[in-house]
Design a protein that fits this description.
alpha/beta, 11 helices, 14% strand, globular, 296 residues
């Protein structure tokens, strides 16, 4: 049962929409690239969450609620990534919001008794290819006069995703046995799609680091010579990673990855550039730091 909206949200959602050019509002930059690849040229695509902020626990401001209400379409990943947006999106008309994963992690977990679905869907070009048809249809409903252009863009995007998937798969194929550790466990889409050997994660959840026993095992793993690389993200910082891992951090190569692509310029091909940069950094580290097999 849905709770009644707080007074502030109710008041904001009663405001009339702006009469300006329609805005497609997305939560994170990778979704902006997806929309820009499919939407008619000149579509006003805006990003809700500023650079440097995590989509997992973003503190929504009243001004953000106004932007959501004034948008023609809200595109978000879903409650598994942005739980703070769930109730607000639910109060929008169905035609004005699209979640790529319209269920929560826990709902899916109970539905199939699996480990759930990693919400970082933008790290999987095959998953984006599969979801692009629904987004394109939503955009056609918004811009019926541009249906041909949108469908042409959809065909090209899906072709690009198929080619990108094959490219990344070939890049990772000889590296599938090389072990690595991640600081934030947000790469399962890549790991599972390309059969990589992630051995452990420091943070399994944004606010829950590994416990004392798990940390001891992790440090032993890093000291064992079985791990080539440790991947971390800008929001944590190298100093924080070094502090948490101590001397064990010196046993592996540490590489910073940016899964939100904060420095990637916008454009139709931005997503392909982003994925090539991200997976290229991972592959380069795994390739150049493969642990040596012990001498018999």
């Amino acid at each position: 049962m849905k709770t009644l909206c707080p007074l502030l949200l109710c008041l904001l959602f009663s405001m009339p929409l702006n009469a300006d050019a329609p805005v497609v509002l997305v939560t994170i930059k990778p979704l902006a690239w997806l929309v820009q690849a499919l939407a008619p040229a000149g579509t006003n695509v805006q990003t809700l969450i500023p650079d440097g902020r995590s989509p997992h626990d973003y503190p929504l401001r009243p001004a953000d609620v106004v932007r959501i209400q004034n948008s023609a379409l809200l595109v978000w990943v879903g409650p598994g990534l942005e739980p703070w947006l769930d109730q607000i999106a639910d109060r929008l008309p169905p035609a004005r919001q699209l979640a790529l994963l319209p269920y929560s992690f826990h709902e899916h977990k109970h539905a199939d008794d699996s480990k759930g679905v990693d919400p970082h869907i933008w790290l999987d070009p095959v998953a984006l290819r599969e979801q692009s048809t629904l987004l394109a249809q939503t955009l056609v409903n918004m811009y019926p006069a541009s249906a041909n252009e949108i469908n042409q863009r959809l065909t090209q995007f899906q072709h690009n995703m198929t080619a990108l998937d094959k490219e990344i798969a070939a890049q990772f194929s000889p590296l599938s046995q090389t072990g690595f550790v991640v600081y934030h466990d947000g790469y399962q889409r890549i790991v599972q799609r390309y059969h990589l050997n992630q051995r452990a994660a420091v943070w399994h959840h944004e606010s829950i680091p590994a416990g004392a026993r798990e940390r001891a095992g992790l440090l032993a793993l890093l000291n064992s010579g079985e791990v080539a690389c440790l991947f971390y993200e800008p929001e944590h910082g190298r100093d924080a990673v070094n502090s948490w891992l101590g001397s064990a951090a010196s046993k592996v190569k540490m590489v910073e990855l940016d899964p939100l692509g904060e420095n990637v310029p916008a454009g139709v091909n931005a997503y392909m550039q982003f994925m090539r940069d991200l997976t290229g950094k991972m592959a380069a580290c795994l390739q150049s730091n493969q642990p040596q097999s012990p001498t018999p």
